[in-house]
Amino acid sequence: MLDQRARAMPPDPQEPPQGRPAGRRGLSRAVAAARRDLAYRPRLRPYGTSPRAARGTMAAVAVGVAASLVIGLLAWKQMAVTDGPAESTSVTRRPAERQGGFVAGSAPVRPAVEPVAPLKALRTPHLFVVTKKSVTRATAERVARAKGVRAVEAADAASVRIDGKQVQTLGVSPSTFRAFTPERTAKSNELWANIAAGDVAVSFVLGNDGGLPLGTVASSGGRSLRVGAYATTGMGAIDAVVSRQTARMLGIPENNALIVSAPSVDSTRLRRTLLRVLPKGTQIALVNPVSVRAAGTGRTTALPPTAFASDNQIRTALTAAASKLGRPYVWGAEGPDSFDCSGLVQWAFAQAGIRVPRVTHQQFVAGAQIPLEQARPGDLIFWRHDPTNPGYVSHVAIYWGDGKMLHAPRTGDVVKMAPVTTRNLAGVVRISPNVAARVR
Hints:
alpha+beta
């Protein structure tokens, strides 16, 4: 449901460093047997709809309550959305335009209710708060007064069904929320004008891999939404942004989310402080967390060898992933019959009893950074393919050994083995079960 994958890139002309092969006879037999699955072609569900979601969300929309980043960053509580007649929308479809390095759509469908204020300064979000009920002004002010907090932005959060896909969506005030997004998103006046005019901006991976191209019209709750821009909020669980006025029309609850910027305080400690301030049942996810540094060293504490998954756990995860060769890539799918890239990683490690976070940028901090030339089978390899936010970790694969990786590449493709490519490489991570379990 969250961070989905960018297109697989062609192999880099420079041959990648070689790792150690899996090399276990039992695993080889399992892989050989599993390749019979290549003939399996299940009926595809709508892109972005997992088998679980396809079974019970016909007229409901889930309200966002982030259980924790370990189980997917956000768990959304169901809420009803009132269906209404689709609005009459005049759309001129024309090729997407690139403006300042950002992919933007065409002109707004209708005039904005109010003009969008210019960007003044960028703010980095560190905590994303979701509550069961609307946050009162007094509570928001208490959050703003917490030590180290520089800025707080209110928003509306829900899981909204858009063209058959369950999409984590924020309703925002374009004039103020833009400051909390990555620079390319924040600086695009066209993007925020489109949102203010009633468009939906979707993440690059949802648009590119989930089948929502720029300029097309999607349906949600009986209404029409034009995809007016590709954008990234910098928060991996969020794949769509609308104005707060549009959020009201879609039935998204009001003021149930806060974005907190606190660059000078440890994010984990601040999270504990805010949980005491906010109502019971509030969930807080770490976004761009500020970490405690090891005293006197200026570096984070290294992980001991015993902190990593055992050989048996790695063997189990690799065997599980290989058993899904040939299964289709579906945006947001978590298995067992279809997967996106991070969904495959999470499912495979779960078979070994290891809880891995749901989306790529969370998995990227679920262990220790390893040089590519030291990669072992079972390590995770990450890339940055999102042109709307070049720093965002958007794709993941499981290293197999001998310069090969196992991954779910993109829409229209299947789980497959492929050579490792170093284009847009973000890094390699060796999973630590204890670290992964603490990711929020």
